[in-house]
Design goal:
The protein is built from nine helices and 14 strands. It is an alpha/beta fold and 318 residues long. The chain binds adenosine-5-diphosphoribose.
Length: 318
């Protein structure tokens, strides 16, 4: 992949997490448990990241981790991060779509990205704030980083939800289920059910079409299902676990193939927009975009999803 010009420091890595709310703090703790990186938790609210950071440090002897964890309101503390995870912003309330957050969160993500880049000009940015694909594109635009260093967390979560629902339906381990979810992180996401397998067997041979369709539908609405139960916020355990998997793949240079929101330059016949596709993640960030051959229907659904992201990006007037 072009523009690869950095590698994370795997001996002593530094991960900063912007936004010490539900997603940010939960993912900070998951990364702390790994022990391979020092962690900076930053929020605009005074005391919040400091308090949560201290609480996590207190846990390190119990979780057997030597990670240093600090909470701060000062970007200087994030200097020379290898990875910066951006979770700052507002989350959905019942009845809202992710796209409804664009005007509020674009202001926050713009400001945060400018500050992050000032102190960590060589970092990898993992975007988490919604609407995810548009916010990733905004961070790419503001940072002027190459596309291998700015991408978003969405597909791992959507894929995990689909894997969970399939495993529950067939009463098998989630480990035996693999899925392929492409497109934007929203109502237009595209499940390529033809490529979803249970123990190597396509799910199309294991479940009737109506059942598969209902599981896909539940996956698409999976985040909303949680928002309507919580009433005051959105999902955070599974999103945080998905971020930690991406951080792992980068810091440990795993070359893992994971679905991420990436800026496409002609792949899948799509140009100039961020959408979810499988990528190879390693120490340079996105090291390759994996292209599957799609049927005409799948291709049309993916293009429709990319167009929906494009519309939202236009609202931001970059
Ligand atoms: N700079 C730093 N932190 C900020 C800023 C800012 N300009 N603006 C808001 N924040 C912080 C808030 O103070 C809050 O602590 O971001 C945090 C967001 O946390 P939550 O409200 O708990 O939201 P969370 O559930 O973590 O979701 C964050 O991730 O999944 C997405 O849709 C979700 O966009 C939302 C984001």
């Amino acid at each position: 992949m072009e523009g690869i010009n950095r590698e994370v420091n795997t001996k002593h890595s530094k991960v900063s997490i912007i936004g010490a709310g539900n997603v940010g703090a939960t993912c900070a703790f998951r990364i702390a448990e790994k022990g391979y990186a020092d962690i900076v938790l930053l929020d605009i609210i005074e005391g919040l990241p400091q308090g949560k950071g201290l609480d996590m440090v207190d846990a390190t002897p119990i979780i057997d981790s030597d990670a240093k964890i600090i909470g701060t309101n000062d970007y200087e503390e994030t200097a020379n991060s290898d990875i910066v995870v951006i979770t700052s912003g507002v989350s959905r309330k019942p009845g809202m779509s992710r796209d409804d957050l664009v005007l509020t969160n674009m202001k926050i993500v713009r400001e945060v990205t400018e500050k992050v880049v000032r102190y960590s000009s060589n970092c990898i940015i993992i975007m988490v704030t919604n609407p995810l694909d548009a916010m990733t594109q905004l961070a790419l635009h503001i940072s002027k980083f190459p596309r291998n260093r700015v991408f978003g967390q969405s597909g791992i979560l959507d894929s995990a939800r689909f894997r969970t629902f399939i495993a529950q339906e067939l009463n098998v381990s989630v480990k035996d289920v693999s899925t392929c979810v492409l497109g934007g992180h929203g109502d237009t996401m595209v499940s390529i059910t033809r490529l979803c397998k249970v123990g190597g067997v396509p799910i199309t041979e294991l479940l009737p079409k109506e059942k598969i369709d209902s599981l896909v539908e539940r996956t698409v609405k999976g985040g909303g299902e949680i928002v309507s139960l919580l009433k005051t916020g959105s999902a955070f355990y599974a999103p945080a676990a998905a971020i930690a998997q991406m951080v792992d793949a980068i810091i440990l240079d795993k070359k893992e193939i994971l679905p991420c929101a990436a800026y496409l330059e002609g792949e899948y016949g799509i140009n100039g927009v961020v959408v979810g596709v499988p990528v190879k993640l390693g120490k340079s960030g996105i090291e390759q975009i994996i292209e599957h051959d799609l049927t005409p229907e799948e291709d049309a659904a993916l293009k429709k999803s990319a167009d929906a992201v494009r519309e939202l990006v236009e609202v931001m007037n970059l």
